Write the structure tokens for this entry.
Amino acid sequence: MAKQMAFYFNASTCTGCKACQVACQDRNNLPVDVRWRRVYQYGGGSWTPHPNLLIANNIYVYSLSVACMHCENALCADVCPTAAITKRSDGVVLLDSTKCIGCRYCEWACPYGAPQFDEAAGVMTKCDFCQDLQAKGENPACVDACVMRCLDYGDLEELRAKYGDLSSIEPLPKASITHPALVLTPHKHAQPTGAGNGKLINLPEEV
Amino acid sequence: MEHRNIDLFVMWGWNPIYSSGGNPTYKALANKGRAKYIFIDPYYNDSAMVLADEWIPIRPTTDIPMVLAMAYTLITEDDPVTNPLIDWDFLNRCTVGFDAEHMPEGADPKDNFKDYVLGITDGLPKTPEWASQICGVSAQRIRSLAVQIGSTQNVALCQANAVARQRKSDNWPQLFMTLGAMTGHIGKKGSMTSGGYYHTRSSDGGPALVNAGSSGVPSIKNPLASMRMNDNEMWEGILSGKYTAGYQDVRDVNIQMIYHGGGAVLQSRDGMTKGIAAHRKVEFVVSQSQHLTTNSKYADIVLPVTTQWERYGTFLTGNREILIWGQQVTEPLFEAKDDIWVAKEIGTRLGLDPNEIEPVSLKQQVYNQLAGAEVMKDDAPNSGGSFEPLLTITAEDIAEMGVEGEPQTGRISLKEFREKGIYQVPRKPGDNFEYIAYKAFREDPEANPLETATGKFEIYSQALADAIKAFGWNETTPIPTYAPYDEGYEATFSDWPNQVKGEYPLQLFTIHYGRRSHTVFDNIPALRRAFPQEFMMNPIDAEARGIKHGDYVLITSRHGKTIRPVAVSERIIPGLVNLWHGAWVQMDEEKGIDLAGADNIINGAVPTGQGTSGWNTCNVQVEKWTGEPLAPDYKWPQRIPIKEA
């Protein structure tokens, strides 16, 4: 059994197609505003105005697919007043919606946007690493949906040995806050967290 | 496979992430670190995000000047001994029209391509400096790109359809071919010049290695085949009662009924404002569809028809190496009926014989296609192998399916194909399925002529000029020359020489979007939530109008209006805005404004050339929307006509 279940994400080949986001919603029958996986685009650069020429300066963009980080230091579990959020022995962080009173503290505490409020039900929900699929020996829905094979998962130490130990780039927060169980391969233009020169380019109403 | 031999990929208007089946982007990753990818595009698209080593921003509708200037560079800087950039051997043996010495019979030698480029013909040398004013690429980069393509051994020159989906762009494909011919990147290993590098072709070009057989259904001759209205004239034809049948040949037409047998013509053809008016003018509109699409929304009667999942079976592919057998997964839902059943029911009532409408049952058709499915053997080079049956079919299989047929032997069993649903031809490097187009032609053009009047690539093509003239809208030259496109870049100026912008100062293009496949799936809330149908503007243009990221704007063209939230983005060039193609129209009848961002409300229907739809030639103005706020479209009520009881 894994000591800490983790996701791996390859930002260098993610195309921003959002198949992972939609596959997760579909598989878990989520309401349209509840997104256990979310895809962001971050970019920068500038244009020099000119009467004729198109002068682009270092235009770049990359996509990031983010779910629950099943953090080693799960702040969501810490702040939950009803102990609805627990961390399992394999590191998966589980949210039991039946114990949730909808106070939304976990939503405030999580720097990744993982806990998602289901307005109709009045409770919080989040990624559970597709527990039922894994129990059958199958992959999480997002991993199978990715057309570019950007997503992988497994024990955190094994993923680190295979892919390195990068766990944050812009627009993700510093890893030192919650120690996310995440390994990243950066996009070639990836900006270091806290020192980026770009911005989130999703439409505000989408985020 | 051949991709692995290419060192430089020049991708002109290519975005396979959004518009190519078969996942060519994933395949292209095999070249990462080895081959260079240059993307020439008005937008830093998502495919560039993953693959591009360099992005050359260019204005839409200005591709011809840029390539003419590249030809100028090649001609003026080429030296066969000290600086060979031009493949004179290929030009001389395999093309006509490049210079006065190689013109086709009957052509005036003065009308050659080289003299036009050098300015000998019209006094205007097509220099990089000249082109730069129009296309926005620096003269220096135009020059160095031409030299790069001319001096690199193994180059792929690939253009996608967007570059030709522009009014009066008929000479563009011919010019792109000319560039490939000049630099010799045709018909030899490690190079290619692509005529349309899109959809399933952009994985791997060449003859199909596996095919379904014939269904056994004879084709039905169209009794009205002689009377054809172009997509860009059909709405006007209905409204005005006139259409262009050919050169100086305008005829009367009286259309009283529209029948949509399928498709999405009202949504996806230019000039939707006129299209809706046309649907209201005729006496009767019938539409067959699975959802309340735009065709059906404006119909009097909607007949719900089945999807492929509700039918016995069908065949498709994603690239030339695979055959997919799609099989029925459910009985028809609700009252949906098969299109052929609909045709038989209507036909019978019109006195037609239903057995002529459906001479072969669908199940038998599928069987015929299985029995006739064939796969290429690895027994002749350059994908020239002979075919053998794909499937072994036993008498038990035939009896089980309840069809007519004879047992046969093939490569795999019917059972295996049914279970897997897909067959993929095994490949290995160096196999006989690697393919070089025009290889035999290049080696011996006399023995292997092309299907052109001269048997060669026609840089001077009388056939092309004649074809365009015969359509009746405009004329062009037999060699690729430049004239500003209708509603192109120059049309954004009221005074081009003095560079004064006009009433519609921005160019608009309407490219594919991740939410949809053209117009399919636009009505799904989860996809709307993921892809908000945002309108894209460059920061320079947005700031000039006091528009911020997330604001709602009104977009106006000569043909219609629409409202959208804005994504202010550096990814799009200044002077250009993007309205993603395919959003289902949602007219506010009172205001006469579309709320959904339907591209063809903004795009006008103007036929040119060979009847091309100019979806990427449009000029617009944009201003902040100050009217009633609009909710994001994923919150709109779904277009479901029948509510639950």
DSSP finds six helices and ten strands in chain A. The mean pLDDT of chain A is 97. Residues 24 and 30 of chain A are 8 Å apart (CA to CA). Chain A touches chain B through 39 residues (CB under 8 Å).
